[in-house]
Amino acid sequence: MDDTIVGISTTQGVGAISIIRLSGKDAINVASKIFLGKKLNEVDTHTINYGYIVNEKEKIDEVLVSVMKKPNTYTKEDIVEINCHGGISSTNKVLEMCLLNGARLAEPGEFTKRAFLNGRIDLTQAEGVMNLINSKTEQARKMSINQLNGKSAFKIKELRQFLIEIIAQIEVNIDYPEYEDIEQLENEHLKPKLYKVKEELKKIITDSEHGRIIKEGIDTVIIGRPNVGKSSILNMLLEQDKAIVTEIAGTTRDIVEGQINLEGILINLIDTAGIRKTEDVVEKIGVEKSLELLEKNDLILYILNNNENISEEDLEILNKIKNKNYIIIINKNDLHSKIDINKLNHFKNIIYMNTIDKQGLKELKEKIKELYKLDIINTNEMTYITNTKSLSLLKKSLKEIENIETGLENDIPIDLLEIDLKQIWNNLGEITGETFQDELINQLFSQFCLGK
To answer: What is the pLDDT of residue 245?
Structure first.
């Protein structure tokens, strides 16, 4: 972090302006070497200065240069932002001049990484920055702003403080048992404190699961035998002819994808090859992919044909999905019914549809909203942890709390249970970045775009 980094902070291409950002102890010096205008070392902080980027022979571009001196900057280092014209050639030439005069090309996410390492933001806020950049819906944008404002981190830090107070009291009881004026923390006193931690963890985990849905959407796979109407249902949901529809069995041989926005949540739809036994090599690969997707997706739409009997293959697949999030769609209800509905007595979430007059489309959307409680997701109040690693640490901490509760019931000495409490405290610190491993930090920031 002793060097000065530079990167293009705007999308590369033809546009009105491009921004080249410098950060580091020599940021102002590097910019001064290539700037014709006011002396940047002498201007006030947080000012915009007009001039030209030049080399020894010519003017390269007419620019506005923003100078922001530490510590009141994004990275808490000196920052210079060069606003040049948005052509690809001029942008790259200004970047080249910065590199030739002492700056190093920034790695993906390195500006935000420096903001974290210099203590300006924590890891949850850094994730909020990345989520905000990648937001595709209004709900996702609101969630990202909450992360960026530190609401998630505040809840985690509160829990850490509560835990460290418990740990400190246990330590005092162990080290100074002779002092009568120190409150003795017995097992019975510890139980309500652990219950409070457990309930807070549960709430954060629940909110975070909602956060993942807001951020990534609901991965939804459409499954069924050939010619039950999977591709037609996909096209109806997308309101476009994305998938090829014919009466020939096996038309869909590979996955076809699309997205819809439902209550501000993306539904990531995947149409699959019809599941049947086949000798066609290509179709067989498609069927295998369809079966694999049963295990990987959040929601399964299993399509049955109202005009056909339920087969043994149908019952076999239905048995596989009964403990997952599923909706059974009995399609083609405009045709004469031959389906034995009694075979579905043990299943719920059943709706009837047809793609001729779009009957059942509204019911399908309402059922998805009901299954995922989309009506109650509130991005203003919830505490979201959207990073997969962080969410796993929360779930691990919840499991450890439950193990401690079991230990208390079995009269395990409180000083042994303290070890697990310290592990939970460390887990929560890893989420906010108060305790972290270098390789995890590098992995996180490598997912950022260049210049951020």
So the answer is: 44
Which CA distances in Å does 186 have to 139, 162, 175, 192? 45, 17, 15, 11
Q: Are 229 and 331 in contact (CB under 8 A)?
A: yes
The residue whose two tokens read 């926005």 is 261
Contacts of 346 (CB under 8 A, 6+ apart): 322
Q: What stretch of H or E contains 132?
A: helix 123-134
CA distance 426 to 434: 9
Q: Partners of 268 in the beta sheet?
A: 219, 259
| Contact present, 79 and 27 (Cβ < 8 Å) | yes
Phi, psi (rounded to 5 degrees) for 100: -70, -20
Number of other CB atoms surrounding residue 423 within 10 Å: 13
pLDDT in tens, 70-121: 999 999 999 999 999 988 898 999 999 999 999 999 988 889 889 888 888 8
DSSP state of 323: T
pLDDT at 246: 43
CATH class as words, domain 217-376 = alpha beta
Round the CA-based radius of gyration of the chain to a whole number and report it.
29
Rounded Cα gap, residues 438 and 429, in angstroms? 14
pLDDT tens-digit series, residues 380-419: 555 667 677 788 889 999 999 999 888 888 878 777 888 8
How many alpha carbons fall within 13 Å on the CB side of residue 152?
33
Query: Domain limits of the chain?
Result: 5-117, 151-214+382-445, 217-376
Both tokens of 314, joined, read: 């149908």
∠333-338-344 over CA atoms, to 5°? 85
Q: Are strands 265-271 and 218-224 parallel, antiparallel or unpaired?
A: parallel
Q: What is the DSSP letter of 251?
A: -
* CATH architecture observed for domain 5-117: 2-Layer Sandwich (3.30)
* SS3 of residue 231 by DSSP: helix
Question: 318: closest CA among 333, 305, 332, 303?
Answer: 303
Dihedral over alpha carbons 163, 168, 169, 174 (to 10 degrees): 130
